[in-house]
């Protein structure tokens, strides 16, 4: 597996553990439908939470959330729609962002609830 893929997988595992430790129930990770992917799908307080995870080894080339384009957001919303339809989900949906980067000797996790809104794109 390519190094950037390993980094992404590591970040998604760190994010999932962070969410679990904060009371979230993880339904799926790395869910795919064709070319679309959702990093983490969870439930928290009767809400379906779609989580985009961005991981970087450092922030010298920008913060991890700087890489989220309008195209990426549109794909995120389309993937979420497919997931909801496929699983016949009826919960209200929230879109969160978790950024993870290595600082000093540890991974730093930042969680931004309600980071995206479908009408923003």
Distance between the termini: 32 Å
Proper CATH architecture: 3-Layer(aba) Sandwich
Question: Major beta sheet, specifics?
Answer: 5 strands, mixed
CATH class membership: Alpha Beta
Helix content: 25-40%
- The CATH topology is given as Trna Endonuclease, Chain: A, domain 1
- The total beta strand count reads 5
Report the sheet-strand fraction.
35-45%
* SSE string: HEEEHEE
Query: What global shape is seen?
Result: globular
- The radius of gyration is 14 Å
What value does the average pLDDT take? 88
Class computed from helices, strands and strand pairing: alpha+beta
Provide the domain count.
1
Q: Low-confidence segments, ≥5 residues, pLDDT <50?
A: none
Biggest β-sheet: strands ordered side by side in the sheet: 1-2-3-4-5
Please tally the helical runs, counting DSSP H or I stretches of 4 or more residues.
2
Describe this structure in words.
With 121 residues, the chain is α+β, with helices and mostly antiparallel strands. It has a single domain (3-66, 92-120), classed as Trna Endonuclease, Chain: A, domain 1 (3-Layer(aba) Sandwich), CATH 3.40.1350.10. It is 31% helix and 42% strand. It has a 5-stranded mixed beta sheet. The chain is globular, with a radius of gyration of 14 Å. The termini are far apart. 25% of the residues are buried. The mean pLDDT is 88.
